[in-house]
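[job 4471] stage=fold_predict status=RUNNING
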Amino acid sequence: MKTRFDWKAAYFHVVGLVAIITLLIAVIAAGHAALRLAFPTLSLDSYQWQQVRSFAAYKRATVGPGPKGRAPIEATGERETGAATMSEDELRQAWEEYRSLVVEGERHDGLWQLMQSFITVVITLPIFWWHRRAAKRLRPVDEGDD
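[job 4471] inference complete, writing C-alpha cells
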C-alpha cells in the first residue's frame, strides 16, 4: 500500500532538528562564556596576553625598546601618547590600569555571551517541545509512543 509523504510531519521534524542544533550551539557558547568569565586571560589574543602578563612587554609596546631599536611611529602605527616621558612608576601604574581594563572587558564579554546563550535556550526550548509534541500527534496509532 502506497503512503503519501506527510509534509506537515516533515516540517515539524525539521524544525525540531533545527531547534536541537541551535540548542547545542547555545550550550557550547555558554560553556565558552563560562570559561571566559572564570579565566578571562585565556581568550585574549597573543599580543594582548603578552602585554597583560608582562610589564616589560607592555613597556616595549608603549615606549619601545630604546632609541637604537625604535621604529618610526608611522611604521608601527603608534600615536604620540607621552608614554616616552612617563616615569617607571607612572608607566607601571598605567600597565596595571590597562591590565585590569582588559581583564574586566573579557569578563564583560563573557557575561554578555552567557546571557545571549541563555536567551537562545529560553526561546528555543519551547519551540522544540511544541514541534516535538505536534509531530507525535501526527504519528499513526500503530507506531506507538516512545
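[job 4471] summary: The radius of gyration is 27 Å.
[job 4471] exit 0
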